């Protein structure tokens, strides 16, 4: 069973007068979509030059605005009964890179020419062994992009726009990286969101899957299975990611005369529904689990690849 990575996008352009005097909501142009990783939500709308109240604002990153936007987002989430977002360095680096790219191109889009899609951008800065990056494991991401005349009205305007509010209040997101850059009197904002999944070693994954298998059998009134630890089964699970498909036939030659279950999941203990009939077979007495967290073109931020052998 495949657990697809997903991306939520929203775009916003604020054309406002002096921020302190503003009493009505600014004009908003927004788009949003739920898409698989292979798709992109790209707007062709470009910023329209106009005079504004921040014409004298300096160019460059506004870290105070970034911190204010995260704080404002978490206040909105608290009012909605949603857990707060944690700032993440990898997401912030991805947001910064995209903000700089938008400024250089003078365009407000989720993916600009020559730029990687969102999940690939996050994966690029979130890979292990890179300076100031951690081994980020996520299975869901979203992005808000906007430009405005000043910082204080950005969050309130985002919250008035349904697709942007959806990202800001999404209860499944637990990480955020926010970038805010001034250019030519306009504040460009990128908010990248993600759902971080638990980080397990192969051994921890095997234990979790083993508990899930025996709990399922207990619920079915069957005896627990004895868990074996054959050599190189973790490597076999990793080979599935290199083939980009959890196909049982890829392991059949190495493990003859065994029923095999393979799947991908962001939570390895979530057993695929299609495998339950095999796991509930009363003639099965032993099993083994191989697990591997691996990245590939389909899952740039990674996924758990699991193989279960039945004896």
N-to-C SSE series? EEEHEHHEHHEEHEHHEHEE
Helix content class: 25-40%
Distance between the termini: 21 Å
Summarize the biggest pleated sheet: 7 strands, mixed
Structural class: alpha/beta
Mean pLDDT: 80
The gyration radius over C-alpha positions equals 23 Å
Low-pLDDT stretches are 15-57, 129-133
**How many distinct beta strands?**
11
- Percent of sequence in beta strands: 15-25%
Which of globular, elongated, flat, extended, rod-shaped describes the shape? elongated
Tally the helices: what do you get? 9
How would you characterize this protein structure?
There is one protein chain. Helices cover 30% and strands 25% of the residues. By secondary structure, the protein is α/β, with parallel strands linked by helices. Strands 1, 2, 3, 4, 5, 6 and 7 form a 7-stranded mixed sheet that branches. α2 crosses α3 (118-126).
